[in-house]
Amino acid sequence: MLFLRLIVIALIAGSVAWCVGILRRGTAMTQPYSIGLLTCAIVGIEFCIGPYNFGQREHLLIILLLPYVVATATEAVFRLPFAERCGLGVAAGIAIWFKPQDTLILVGLELFLAVRARSLRRILSPEFLSLVITCSIVLMLVCMTPYVKVTLPLLFDTYWAFGTMSALVLVLSHGGYLLQVLVMLLACFVFHRSLRDWATSAVLVVCSGAAFYAFAIQHNDWWYHAYPHQALLLLAWAYLLADFLRPVIDKLSSDSNLRRRAVFVASGAVAVLLCSIVANLHFVATAGTHSQIDPLDQFLAQYKPSTTVYVFSTREAALSSTYNEGLNWGSRFAHLWMLPAIVQNELGPEPPPAPFKQLSPETKARLATLLRKQSAEDLNYWRPSVVLVEQCNVGHPCQGIEGKDFDMISWFLRSPEFAAVWSHYERQAGIDNFAVYKLVP
Question: Domain map of the chain by residue range?
């Protein structure tokens, strides 16, 4: 856990350094004060996802994608050496595979630049060609695995059930974000004559809007899903602020004490970075101390490290609790991600605006058989000492099965294979909204 977090922190440091180096070779924001302001903004943006979502796919997406966006938006890319331009494309090509729908960020970016230049010459640029080649190589590698033929169809059949709102309702529920985008675009239009580089702010807003659309079509208002469009909008605000403050910055830059002040600004940016690193390391070191608050964590804390446990739940939070307490997870999956779609098709869909996909009887039966079979195999293989089962009802809605009374174990026991392995578990006193079972000899 700590090692992985250190890797992400190293990636952030590299991303920030790369972005700063790109800005210094641009044409608009080259004054030390401007660079310092934007450096602090980028550091804050890449750390502001919060400790619990640190290292999520959306986070890695922004870390790897931001240098490409900054370089092309500011047109600093034309001042970079050929190898570095290719590196930008490679990093961006890897980034979008963390969240393929966020390819829309690059689509919006390149379309804006093509319309502004009234030319498609950028498709022959080193960074764009390396982006396309990298994406193609990754796609080819993915197609060589069972992911495309096995996992992807399962995701299309089941993952929609975690959605809580239609795309339109989700967009309309973010009025504050839409207002900020409108204000930003109006500011770029009204003040474009007094701004040195209004186009970069506009490009960043367009990228943010594309990321927002990618967020909306996921149908979930989860914070880390919203991170890409919020991060890009924050960067647009920071760039616009630096542009507005240009006259003040130019006046300060002409001061004879420029060197001392530049060092002060740089020191401030480094201090922000160090504080963020220390805060994240502190979170990892104290991750298990919240067991006094969460009943599930408090219950798991009583077991010795390396004890194997499993939690029947449609939420992935139980997996985090298990690892926070140093325990082993007794399943190949983080949670029962196929179950909500099956249950909604068996018991009826959620009321609008939640999305719903009607599965054929054959597909529904095949998915139910697969889930029961895999769960039985996992119990046989890992033999978890303790199994918790989340109790799904109207008072305690399970994720994806909201508003329904549903008995997970009764549903799984329809499988003789599962019933055979489950006969080795004996029910104990429960905790909060979980039933507890222990493995008996």
Answer: 2-285, 290-439
